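Sequence in, structure out.
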Amino acid sequence: MRSVAVLNQKGGVGKTTTVANLGAALGRLGNRVLVVDLDPQSHLTLHLGLDTSSDGPSVHKVLLDGMSAADAIVDAGENLSAISSNIDLAAAELELVSVVGREVVLRDALEKINTHFDICLIDCPPSLGILTLNALAAAREVIIPLLPHFLALQGLGKLLETIALVSRRLNPDLTVRGVLLCMYEGGTRLCGEVVSDLESFLDAARGANLPWSRAELFKTVIRRNVRLAESPSYGQTIFCYEPKCHGAEDYEALAREVLAVDDGNQADGQPAAGSQTAPTPVTVGEQPAAQAASPQQPEARPPRPEAAAPSQDGADALVSTRQTL
């Protein structure tokens, strides 16, 4: 079973939307998919129209009450199963403090159902606490949803430092599979500049002993689409709510790309017709194409704020790849 943590400590970047709709898309393509809601806000559980009460099975009971993962699974759609969450999970950070091996409780639980599914997607909370460490210990891959904004780039540096630390001390198999741009608006110059910064940063890590040395900027980007924002209120994925919209096209294309990375067949991972792609993306194992010349900068444009000095892992180098917008 492939295990993928969808992670960003910044809220509102599309983590839950990605887990719900990528999971549904992978299921529609014939894969047995498990999604795990590790966020006390229970947004993934709500998105899928599942019960958020404390009475039913939940990830909290798996982590703290000894419930098996198999007993906590509920059906959530075509080839799609879920381990739901509820407000009780908010206390898990404190309750796990005294537990021996608290960082690997989820990993141990999921290992017992390893043969039941083809892929597991873990929706992480917007923090870097014990719940997130459990997700990183259980996963072998990380997908990072990211808004195409400068401040999001700065947060990415800190996130990569955490992933590097977990990789060194807890899970040496952990790798960053890729960065996914969400709420993308291709007509803006800012989006193009963020893409350029990300490509430069990922290219600089090629060949280094870092968890993101083989990461890619996914060819598929998730366009800003109001249908994606509406579907959770109906407890449905985008494929049930509005299967003909851009959001559905983009997540189907992303699912094919994720599967292509696993199969080593990039041809199958080309975005579906009608989906949006980021300009000149970097693909796993390939050298990036030469960067296009940046648009002419306006004379009065202010410089970016100074970024923090690069860490030992070089993660903060991302925010200093461009000194001006």
